[in-house]
């Protein structure tokens, strides 16, 4: 058992614009926090792993090629591996608890070469 400290808690991104911090990593799962300030831009690309977001604070829209939805505290969003997605219209500092299965980046071709 492990208590994951800091997961889902706002961290001001500073000059970077957004902030991603991974708090737990195993072969099959990673957990982290992604923060986007109000008015900020989400610049992420599709991931090679399935992903679940839990909105712990803030408000925004999430957009995929087939759907757009308003999200706020308590929203839980599943994004399958490879699906384009982006948070837009961030009206309040957005804090997302993020879970990847398997661990973030573990399926990416470049990561596989690094471990070979």
TrEMBL record:
Top-level taxon of origin: Bacteria
Matching InterPro entries: Cupin_2, RmlC-like_jellyroll, RmlC_Cupin_sf
Domain Cupin type-2: 34-99
Protein name stated in the entry: Cupin domain-containing protein
